[in-house]
Amino acid sequence: MINPKMIFSPLEQFSIISFIPINLGALSFSFTNSSFFMLLTISFVLLLFHLVTKKGGNLVPNRWQSIVEMIYELALSLVNEQISGVRSQKHKFFPLIFAIFTFLLFSNLIGMIPYSFTVTSHFIVTFGLALSIFIGITIVGFQTHGLHFFSFLLPQGVPLVLAPFLVVLELISYCFRALSLGIRLFANMMAGHSLVKILSGFAWTMLSMGGFFYIAQLAPFLIVFLLTGLELGVAVLQAYVFTILLCIYLNDAINLH
């Protein structure tokens, strides 16, 4: 979220700014504001977990330890509820799921701080994460089932006449999982931040006009306040939805139906 006095377009808050330009021919490896806030998120999470766990934690958890334990238990419940199979087998993937959920959660929440940057509001970030997860899940599927993994393309009991069409449709549907996973997170974060900016700018304009508008501007400011609270909920919900879909896709790869 950005101060409405500083920018004029709702989309300017998503601009990529290069801090350290690094160009190799036509390729750019510049250190940008997006890179900075991803690094900041990871550093904050590592520092938080280090401070909470360095002494083994407290018998009576404090505020920060309670937050970490809640995140841990939520990620663990997703693994236990959404992934079928032997406990030891599915718990192998818990560190990955826990890391992704924590990164997305704090990335979304940090993006709600004024003058910060929401890295998950960029499709290249969410799609890159979703695509790497999709490739990893596919590899897990082949490692678990070998070539039998292709059987997910053809449900049991399907007439052979329809088989070629269903194989194509199932393959397209499977490949679009990465695209839909990335778009869902990016679209929700970008739309919510844009709406907050638009209403904030409208309220600020009414406030600057003075007179009767001092009273009239309270309505849009109240809406902005409520919408900001809703966005905080969306930030948590989108991290949860992304992670639960990851668990569902992973379960499909491990346990063929």
From TrEMBL:
Please tell me where this protein is predominantly located.
Answer: mitochondrion
Q: Where in the cell is it found?
A: Mitochondrion inner membrane
User: PROSITE patterns attached here?
Assistant: ATPASE_A (PS00449)
What stretches pass through the bilayer? 6-29, 36-53, 93-111, 123-142, 162-183, 195-215, 221-250
GO molecular function, a single term: proton-transporting ATP synthase activity, rotational mechanism
Q: Which keywords does this chain's UniProt record carry?
A: ATP synthesis, CF(0), Hydrogen ion transport, Ion transport, Membrane, Mitochondrion, Transmembrane, Transmembrane helix, Transport
Superkingdom classification of source: Eukaryota
- What is any one of the record's Gene Ontology cellular component terms? mitochondrial inner membrane
Q: Pfam families, per this entry?
A: ATP-synt_A
Question: Topology relative to the membrane, per the entry?
Answer: Multi-pass membrane protein
Please tell me whether the keyword Transport is annotated for this protein: yes
Q: How does it assemble?
A: F-type ATPases have 2 components, CF(1) - the catalytic core - and CF(0) - the membrane proton channel. CF(1) has five subunits: alpha(3), beta(3), gamma(1), delta(1), epsilon(1). CF(0) has three main subunits: a, b and c.
* Family in the record: Belongs to the ATPase A chain family.
The record's listing under HAMAP family reads: ATP_synth_a_bact (MF_01393)
Name the PANTHER family on file: ATP SYNTHASE SUBUNIT A
Function per UniProt: Mitochondrial membrane ATP synthase (F(1)F(0) ATP synthase or Complex V) produces ATP from ADP in the presence of a proton gradient across the membrane which is generated by electron transport complexes of the respiratory chain. F-type ATPases consist of two structural domains, F(1) - containing the extramembraneous catalytic core and F(0) - containing the membrane proton channel, linked together by a central stalk and a peripheral stalk. During catalysis, ATP synthesis in the catalytic domain of F(1) is coupled via a rotary mechanism of the central stalk subunits to proton translocation.
What is the name of this protein? ATP synthase subunit a
Q: Which gene encodes it?
A: atp6
